[in-house]
Design goal:
It is built from four helices and six strands; from the N terminus they run E-H-H-E-E-E-E-E-H-H. Strands 1, 2, 3, 4, 5 and 6 form a six-stranded antiparallel β-sheet that branches. A hairpin with a 2-residue loop joins strand 5 and strand 6. The longest helix has 11 residues.
């Protein structure tokens, strides 16, 4: 199985409860309050869960990608504000919304405490958090 940012380029199929975006621009248009920075240097400074830099194995969308999970807007230090939990190919598209309107600090703590290594495990853990369900519409 490939691991890291240079793995398979096969396009994912949509079979998860989240919404898949083909670009940061289309994601940002739909989520302006939790925008993903367009500059890669700013993306690399965001808090990200990567399962010890191995990435989460894709057993959800049907690709050989490994995914990193980003919390937007960037995690605050003083409270558990709501936001979007987003899976990316190490900061690049496609972008898969895993949860929205969840407490970002709670989401981070949940993942770090349980240490998922598969995307489905992260989806399950995040799905158990109180949140507004994400759309199951097709790719944007």
């Amino acid at each position: 199985m490939a691991t890291g940012p240079n793995d398979s380029t096969r396009e994912p199929r949509m079979n998860t409860r989240g919404r898949l975006y083909a670009s940061a621009e289309t994601y940002n248009a739909a989520h302006p309050d939790a925008a993903l920075p367009l500059e890669m240097s700013r993306r690399h400074r965001l808090r990200c869960y990567t399962a010890a830099h191995r990435g989460l194995i894709d057993d959800v969308t049907g690709t050989d990608f490994t995914w990193a999970i980003t919390f937007l807007p960037d995690l605050p230090t003083d409270h558990d504000r709501p936001g979007v939990v987003l899976a990316t190919r190490w900061g690049t598209p496609p972008l898969l919304v895993l949860a929205q309107d969840v407490g970002l600090r709670t989401a981070w703590t949940t993942l770090v405490d349980r240490w998922p290594t598969r995307l489905s495990e992260a989806v399950s853990l995040l799905g158990a958090l109180p949140h507004t369900p994400v759309s199951t519409d097709s790719t944007v």
